[in-house]
Each structure stands twice: as structure tokens, then as C-alpha cells.
Write a structure and sequence with these properties.
Helix content is 38%, strand content 11%. It is α+β, with helices and mostly antiparallel strands.
């Protein structure tokens, strides 16, 4: 038996073959396309054109062609798009690993380049495999809130996605016609020599190709069933046993719903959020400014909104009942009768997104609040007491907690 992985006879699994690889490839073709589109939507939802505040990606150049003001209707829009992005990405992991396993002999084939065209194909394959592993690995680490990679997840995942998808698109253009032809031959057994992936010296099979696909599909369905529930309300949430922020709602009472960062993690002390110390500074046109303590805010017109919180990690809360002052009413206090962009700054000292910017359409929405209460009671410290922003359809990080200053105007 050959000892070198570069020899075709080294790889003896009878499962490998063009039909098996083609089935997995077609599934990934559809799934990764959805992942790419929903990923772009997630990036747009962060309002990356507010580059001095929200966007941590340096010069976007041509990659910003799709940017637009993220809508506030329906209120569950980001909950849907990001829930699909993260849940589908996790469910596709068994398919991706099986696809890489099915073509691994090609990665060791010698000579490494038989011609210029072959060298370019190998290079694109390297970008495809490396990009897939990078994107899925960083995505899973982000979902688990484990930032083991150097630098910020935000630009790394964004630029990695473009490199990966470019290689993926080139590969799909070249291989999809062949894959579709292979799928017409629906059979479990393929004789030796039929296709470059078939071993010339296969071992005895222990499972059919259809059985192997069943194992892969079962793994994907298991991951789907144990993660998807965190994007839903009611009993389905309790099925998300393998996902952070899945399972039953944490704690109890009116503030018993998910959070990413506690007040202690953010460096917020009870002293600075007490009524004696805390003031909200609102600044607007021509430097006009007002300072409001919490009792003064309570004297303003209060409104209520039923809105969820949805985060980039794919989890979301059920609708919570928020009550506070409309953002557009705060803008009017400092001379902006027509809603404009707003920069919101937090008391938070640790972690990213101590500042966040919202577009004028988000400020204008009557459901967008500087919330003082949730579910009929004061905000808890971990949910942003004494005041936090809540905006329909916005990513969770833009719903700033522990608000200290709001600056209205063109950003």
C-alpha cells in the first residue's frame, strides 16, 4: 500500500466519487449563497457608511456599493436575517467538512502545477478551502463569544467573506455543470476509475454513499434543531441547548431576558448611575445643549414599544415592552424638528461599541426610544439603567446601554 498521500491508491475509501462530492457541492452552492447575502445584510444593518463611529473596517472602496439606510420595518427584520445567517452557517458545518473530506486527495496531488491553468486552479482551490475554514471558524467563535483570533472580528470576517466568495464563485462556475451531470447518475456504487476522486484500490465498504449522506444530513439537522430555537419565542427557545443564549429565558421577573454584557463587565458602577450623579447630555444644532436627570426625563411625554433585541451572534429575545422618550422628541429639544442622525455615547468603559450612531430614519421611527422602563419596571443595571436606546430592527450593539450623551446632527 502506498505511504504517500500524493498517490491515488493511498486514499482507499469507497465512498469518494464524483456523485458523492457533487451532492455535497450543490447543497453548499445554495447554502453559502444565502450565507453571503445575509452576511452583507448584516453588515449594512450596522450602518457602515457612518464610518467614523460604527464601521471598524478601513477604506471599504468598491466593497461598499450595497450600503443603504437600514429599514426599521418590520421590527423583526434583523432578527430574521441574522438568525438565518448564523443558524444556517452552523447547520452547514457537517456538509462542509464532508465536502472537504471527499476531495482531500486532490489537495495532495503531484505535481503541484502541470500548467499555468492548473496552477491557477490549485491557487483558487487553496483560497476556497482556506477561506471556508476561516469564515466558518471565525463565525463559530463569534457565536460562542470566544475571540481567539487577532484583530477585530468585524473587518476580518467581512474581508474574509469577499475573498472566500470570489474563490467560491469561480469554483462554482467551473464545476456546477459537471456536478449537475454527475447527479444524473443516482447510484451508490461507481466502478474504479470512474472519476478522478475514485480510489483505484478501494477498501471494502462499511456504509453506502446514501448512508453517508444520511449521516451528514442527520448531523446538520441535529445542529439546526439545537440552535434555531434561540431566534424564536415560546417553547421552541428551549430546544436551543447547544447555542449561547439559547434554552429558557434566564432568571425571572421583568428583566429576565438575555444580555451580552453585564454592568460589571462594562465597568459601570452604581454610584455613577444613581440619581445624584447621572445626567443625560443632549446636544444639537449650533451647539444647543440640555442636561436632564432621570426625574426630568420622566416629566417628558413617555411612549411604549414592543420590540425584540437581536444580536450579531444570532440570538434574539422575545418582544419586550419598553417605555421611554422618543428619540425624535429628544432631537426636537435641541432644535431638530426634522429627525437627523444621532451619535449615542455610553458610560461603558470596557469592550467595543462604547459609541454607536443611528440614521435619521431610525431616529424618526416613533417606536425608537430612549427607554427608561422595560416590562413595567425600571431597567435593571445589566439592561442599561438608567437609560438605554431601543430601535426596531437594529442590531443589538446599536441599542446602546447606560446612555450618557446624545449628539444630534449630520455625522
Amino acid at each position: 500500500m502506498p505511504r504517500s498521500p500524493s498517490s491515488p491508491a493511498f486514499w482507499r475509501s469507497p465512498l469518494r466519487g464524483p456523485w458523492f462530492t457533487s451532492v455535497l457541492g450543490v447543497v453548499l452552492l445554495a447554502g453559502i449563497t444565502v450565507l453571503f447575502v445575509t452576511g452583507l445584510l448584516s453588515y449594512a444593518a450596522y450602518n457602515p457608511d457612518l464610518s467614523s463611529v460604527n464601521d471598524q473596517t478601513p477604506d471599504k472602496g468598491l466593497l461598499g456599493f450595497y450600503l443603504f439606510s437600514w429599514p426599521t420595518h418590520p421590527s423583526w427584520l434583523y432578527r430574521l436575517t441574522q438568525g438565518v445567517h448564523v443558524t444556517l452557517g452552523i447547520a452547514l458545518i457537517p456538509v462542509l467538512l464532508a465536502k472537504l473530506w471527499s476531495v482531500v486527495p486532490k489537495l495532495f496531488a503531484l505535481p503541484p502545477a502541470r500548467s499555468l491553468a492548473h496552477a491557477l486552479e490549485r491557487l483558487s482551490l487553496l483560497l476556497l478551502v482556506g477561506g471556508a475554514l476561516f469564515e466558518f471558524t471565525t463565525g463559530v467563535l463569534n457565536v460562542q463569544l470566544d475571540y481567539l483570533f487577532p484583530g477585530s472580528f468585524y473587518p476580518l470576517h467581512f474581508y474574509g467573506a469577499w475573498v472566500f466568495f470570489a474563490a467560491f464563485l469561480a469554483h462554482a462556475v467551473l464545476k456546477t455543470p459537471l456536478a449537475l451531470r454527475n447527479l444524473r447518475h443516482i447510484r451508490d456504487e461507481q466502478p474504479p476509475g470512474e472519476g478522478e476522486l475514485v480510489s483505484p484500490n478501494p477498501a471494502e465498504p462499511t456504509v453506502s454513499r446514501r448512508g453517508a449522506l444520511g449521516v451528514v444530513g442527520g448531523g446538520s439537522l441535529l445542529l439546526l434543531a439545537t440552535t434555531a430555537g434561540r431566534s424564536f419565542d415560546g417553547p421552541l427557545r428551549e430546544t436551543a441547548v447547544l447555542a449561547p443564549h439559547g434554552g429558557p429565558e434566564p432568571g425571572g421577573g421583568t428583566g429576565g431576558f438575555q444580555i451580552n454584557k453585564t454592568a460589571a463587565y462594562a465597568g459601570i458602577s452604581p454610584t455613577e448611575t444613581g440619581e445624584e450623579a447621572w445626567r443625560l447630555v443632549v446636544t444639537g444644532r449650533d451647539g444647543r445643549s440640555v442636561r436632564l436627570d432621570r426625574p426630568q426625563l420622566l416629566q417628558l411625554a413617555l411612549h411604549s414599544s414592543a420590540l425584540p433585541i437581536a444580536c450579531v451572534e444570532g440570538w434574539s429575545t422575545s418582544d419586550q415592552w419598553w417605555r421611554g422618550v422618543r428619540l425624535r422628541d429628544l432631537a426636537a429639544l435641541v432644535g431638530h424638528d426634522d429627525p437627523v442622525d444621532v451619535l449615542v455615547e455610553s458610560l461603558q468603559r470596557h469592550g467595543a461599541f462604547r459609541r454607536a450612531a443611528l440614521r435619521a430614519n431610525q431616529v424618526a421611527d416613533p417606536r425608537s426610544l430612549l427607554a427608561l422602563f422595560v416590562n413595567g419596571e425600571d431597567l435593571t443595571p445589566d439592561h442599561g439603567y438608567p437609560a438605554r436606546v431601543i430601535v426596531p430592527a437594529a442590531p443589538g450593539v446599536l441599542n446602546t446601554k447606560w446612555v450618557a450623551r446624545m449628539t444630534f446632527g449630520d455625522l
